[in-house]
Amino acid sequence: MSRFTRLNGAALALGFAFLYLPIVILIVFSFNESRLVTVWGGFSTKWYVELWRNAQLIDAAKVSLMVGLTTATIATVLGTLAAVALVRTKRLPARSLFTAMTYAPLVMPEVITGLSMLLLFVAIGVDRGFWTITIAHTTFALCFVAVVVQSRLSAFDLSIEEAAQDLGAPPWKAFCLVTLPAIAPAVAAGWLLAFTLSLDDLVIASFTSGPGSTTLPMRIFSSVRLGVSPDINAVCTILIGCVAVGVMTATLVTHRRR
Questions:
Q1: Does domain 54-257 match CATH 1.10.3720.10?
Q2: Which segments in the chain show pLDDT lower than 50?
Q3: Where are the alpha helices (DSSP H) in the chain?
């Protein structure tokens, strides 16, 4: 067994610094007294108070939250069904094509996805707004859910579900009572991943949004173009906290189930 050397420690510290130092700096300056974001003027929480008075940011946060919740729920349902189809239908005609089409959004540039969705909505005459953003986000988020759930389903013993069917349970009931609880941690992880991806997206939302449906990343980006303000640091810190709580909750749930 290899020992933990100073070189390993230095490499680990450098890696964590590269990943998290910018985030730490952002969090620290969100408590800056000075309006100049690069000059420390003392500790203060006044920018968090000012944040709640910023109606534009609050409205954008509500839109992002609703889009993220709706997208995560729909993507989880569709992605789970896609994962079941990929794992259990080995003899499905054109299965390779179906697999490639399911995983294509993983590597598709977001600008292409956003532009294609924009052209689709314009062609069918749909007004852009909340639901167009949700549909576009679901399109690329469900493939991430499918990957996560498929990895768990591949290790699931199908004979357990077959035993439930032998005892008289219909296939749908056997799946809901036997298989679904077993893969629940993967489904929950897929939901959290889809929610995070939707909450973070800027490019696709920029193509598919309309009047009154500006998301929080779009609002932050438009504000940063005019200069970074301390309340932007505050709202970003709150987002980081929400994501951290979600990740820790999912980890605790997974460990308890194990």
A1: yes
A2: 1
A3: 6-29, 46-51, 55-88, 95-107, 110-123, 130-154, 158-166, 171-174, 180-182, 184-200, 203-208, 216-224, 230-257
Query: Residue ranges per domain, the chain?
Result: 54-257
What's the one-letter identity of residue 208? T
Question: Can you give the pLDDT at residue 127?
Answer: 87
Maximum separation of any 2 CA atoms in the chain, in Å: 71
CA distance 22 to 45: 20
State residue 255's pLDDT score.
64
Going by C-alpha positions, the residue among 245, 240, 149 that lies closest to residue 194 is 149
Q: Are 189 and 145 in contact (CB under 8 A)?
A: no
The pair of three-digit structure tokens given for residue 77, joined into one six-digit string: 């349902």
Q: In b/e form, how buried is each residue of 41-53, taking b as 16+ CB within 10 angstroms? A: eeeeeebbeebee
Cα–Cα distance, 102 to 99 (Å, whole number): 5
The pLDDT of residue 70: 95
φ/ψ of residue 92, rounded to 5:
-65, 130
